[in-house]
Amino acid sequence: MAFERYALILxxxxxxxxxxVVTFFSLEEGLLTGFARGANATGNRFGAxxxxxxxxxxxxRHHTPDSLFRLHKANVIDPFSEIRNDYDKLVWAGLPxxxxxxLLPAHVQEPALFELFLHYLCLLEKENSRYGLLWIxxxxxxxxxxxxxxxxxxxxxxxxxxxxxKVRFDPENGRVRCRxxxxxxxxxxxxxxxxxxSLRLLERFSGEDLRKSESVVxxxxxxSQLLELIDQMxxxxxxxxxxxxxxxxxxxxxxxxxxxxxEHLSMS
Length: 268
Ligand SMILES: [Zn+2]
What we know:
This protein has helices at about 80-85, 85-105, 110-125, 130-145, 180-185, 195-205, 220-235; strands at about 5-15, 20-25, 30-35, 55-60, 70-80, 165-170, 175, 195. The chain is of the alpha+beta class and about 270 residues long. The strands form two sheets. It has a five-stranded mixed barrel. It has a three-stranded antiparallel β-sheet with strand order 7-6-8. It is elongated, with a radius of gyration of 20 Å. Zinc ion (ZN) binds near residues 155, 158, 177 and 180.
């Protein structure tokens, strides 16, 4: 018996002359890999429904619970053509695709993340600026849904809430420490350092709907700091994460490009 799956297509690779292997994020089963026989043949039954960044309904089945999802049919629900025709938007759409592919284990149902990603693409499709802010807000929510933070700037050493200045945080277990407690631990820690107010903003965004972006006012400097913080948090979990500010055609920002998770602002 075939099942219908609502899916965002993340990756589509040609297999042999006629077939395709498709990785998609489904509402019902999370990340899955599907096999589409004949998907490269002319006049095939899948049309554009298996192109990356398409929201499609897929009809198919697993032969055994762990086997590839055999695709029988697919229909486009939303092709996100505005994103597809805009190189800048494509890059911002690529960041969550890569994050989800790297962070989400296969076969784990994550409907809240699915809805968030779909909402992100719908907003990116309509949005004409402030793509960076949209990505920041998306990733704050994504990290929270996946259980990786963001973190509240309360020092785990002395229990004080850190209002200004720098904090050291551990992206693995959510531990945050103030300057004094961090000094007592020794300065050799490889945990990232960031501004307490950036952490506070991320924490706020992680609980908010993406829709309210119009009411968010960020300076270019704040936006750069948040982009950098997001990169630090994701790169902690994803080896060789491409830092958003290293992408050459995105808006140039005043902060220097970070090249690795161990290179961070100094605590001094
Ligand atoms: Zn402290």
